[in-house]
């Protein structure tokens, strides 16, 4: 995954790096090469979840950041969740990923611009609190944690789906809980082991997707193969479920892009600040091209109506072409990659919960304390939340994986809008101090406002899907539950919130 630091915002919940944890520091250090403008932000109490450095004095190169970024975003949300998106949109899902990339570019532009102009502890949550008020900052923190819990649950279920290829007799719920226990043990006792594996496994995922594309090209070069595949691809129309089907699939597409906060977590670690725009651009275009090409290869190798979330679509495509050994290898790569994604998400959930406890915005017994097991109470509470989300999900009438992704993606919609608004507000307040603006934002507030409108519209279209409506209801109830406690938390933690 990625290593530089943990961000606080739903954007990086599923991809926050594990290796960075081993190098975390309680005191904020401004990265070399990036100097904030004018007034420095006041310190926060969230030192435990602020910025996690690689420990390298030389920082990160552009190439390193691109590998960290793309490798840290791709996870089970794409390897398995794409099957659900294809079932909704058919071949038009390709347009969905193009639209998702355009939305992502605006959010990445806002993230990069904020991070370079105003590097602070607490990242997204601090930006929201400073620019939009303490209530939004409070909601950002808690929705981040809740979204982490839901994402970990969905990753655990995805792992169970992949593992059933080898253990067909095991129920999904029992495998999911088994993986949760393993991640809990690794988080508690094996941080260094996780740290060494996670960066390498990020590269493994990228190699696996590139290899899949190369294999697809080889298979499609066989006599009549491409013509037959193209016929299957378009036999039921490019929009088999209409344009509405494409819009309804966007919730899953957003989930696949939800880890873009990794850009902000790493951008301030660059050797040279002027490379920020080039690095973020390469991440956006690289990720979009990788997603679209691998998805096109999948649709050409496997009739889209045969894709489901009951098995990994990429593995299924390889099996249909009798590449059983490669299919098993792909299954193993995805399984291990999803495992590290889940581990990173759990680490970040523990960090945000501990830091909020230190700020008196969460029960104080979960605060970070010195020692090897300083975050253990927050770890246990986070794991309990994940287990509860999995068990409850199996009682819902709709697809388990669908519900988890839907609820988490609605939180992503919320956080993307908050990040865009935070940058718009920051630029308006510090008009004369803005020394860097991402090239993605060259049209100023027009594209930012248009992106917000599209995000809100897509959230509305998602409500027309009965399964996704369950996720929306769950997200709304959790949102209200968090909001109801704000007056009490505000009164209880007023001095802390003012300092942060």
From TrEMBL:
Annotated transmembrane regions: 60-81, 93-116, 142-166, 172-194, 206-226, 246-270, 282-305, 325-353, 373-392, 404-423, 443-464, 470-489
Source organism, top-level taxon: Bacteria
Membrane topology: Multi-pass membrane protein
Pfam families xref list: AA_permease
High-level lineage: Bacteria, Bacillati, Bacillota, Bacilli, Bacillales
InterPro entries documented for this protein: AA-permease/SLC12A_dom (IPR004841)
Residues in the signal sequence: none
Organism (species): Ferroacidibacillus organovorans
Name under which the protein is recorded: Amino acid permease/ SLC12A domain-containing protein
Cellular location(s): Membrane
């Amino acid at each position: 995954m990625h290593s530089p630091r943990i961000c606080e915002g739903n954007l990086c919940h599923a991809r926050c790096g594990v290796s960075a944890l081993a190098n975390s520091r309680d005191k904020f250090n401004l990265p070399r090469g990036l100097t904030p403008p004018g007034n420095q932000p006041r310190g926060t109490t969230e030192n435990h979840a602020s910025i996690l450095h690689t420990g390298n004095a030389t920082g990160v190169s552009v190439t390193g950041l691109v590998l960290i970024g793309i490798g840290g975003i791709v996870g089970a949300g794409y390897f398995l969740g794409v099957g659900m998106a294809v079932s909704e949109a058919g071949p038009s899902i390709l347009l969905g990923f193009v639209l998702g990339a355009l939305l992502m570019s605006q959010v990445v532009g806002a993230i990069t611009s904020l991070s370079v102009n105003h590097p602070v502890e607490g990242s997204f949550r601090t930006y929201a609190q400073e620019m939009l008020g303490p209530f939004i900052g409070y909601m950002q923190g808690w929705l981040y944690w809740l979204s982490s819990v839901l994402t970990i649950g969905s990753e655990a279920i995805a792992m169970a789906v992949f593992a059933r290829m080898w253990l067909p007799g095991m129920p999904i719920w029992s495998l999911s809980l088994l993986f949760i226990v393993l991640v809990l043990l690794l988080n508690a006792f094996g941080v260094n082991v996780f740290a060494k594996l996670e960066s390498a496994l990020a590269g493994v995922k990228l190699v696996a997707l590139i290899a899949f594309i190369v294999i697809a090209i080889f298979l499609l070069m066989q006599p009549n193969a491409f013509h037959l595949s193209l016929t299957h691809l378009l036999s039921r129309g490019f929009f088999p479920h209409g344009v509405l089907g494409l819009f309804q699939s966007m919730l899953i597409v957003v989930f696949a892009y939800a880890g873009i906060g990794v850009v902000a977590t790493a951008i301030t670690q660059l050797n040279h600040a002027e490379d920020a725009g080039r690095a973020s651009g390469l991440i956006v275009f690289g990720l979009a091209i990788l997603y679209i090409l691998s998805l096109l290869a999948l649709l050409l190798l496997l009739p889209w109506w045969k894709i489901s979330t009951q098995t990994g679509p990429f593995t299924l495509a390889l099996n249909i072409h009798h590449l059983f050994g490669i299919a098993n290898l792909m299954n193993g790569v995805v399984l291990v990659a999803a495992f590290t994604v889940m581990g990173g998400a759990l680490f970040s959930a523990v960090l945000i919960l501990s830091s909020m406890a230190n700020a008196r915005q969460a029960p104080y017994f979960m605060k970070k304390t010195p020692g090897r097991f300083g975050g253990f109470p927050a770890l246990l509470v986070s794991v309990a939340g994940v287990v509860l989300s999995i068990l409850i999900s199996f009682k819902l009438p709709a697809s388990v994986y669908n519900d988890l992704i839907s609820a988490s993606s609605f939180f992503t919609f919320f956080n993307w809008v908050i990040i865009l608004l935070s940058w718009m507000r920051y630029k308006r307040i510090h008009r004369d101090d803005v020394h860097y603006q991402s090239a993605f934002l060259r049209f100023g507030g027009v594209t930012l406002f248009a992106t917000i409108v599209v995000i809100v519209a897509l959230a509305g279209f998602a409500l027309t899907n009965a399964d996704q409506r369950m996720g929306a209801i769950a997200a709304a109830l959790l949102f209200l539950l968090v909001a109801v406690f704000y007056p009490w938390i505000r009164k209880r933690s007023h001095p802390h919130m003012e300092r942060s």
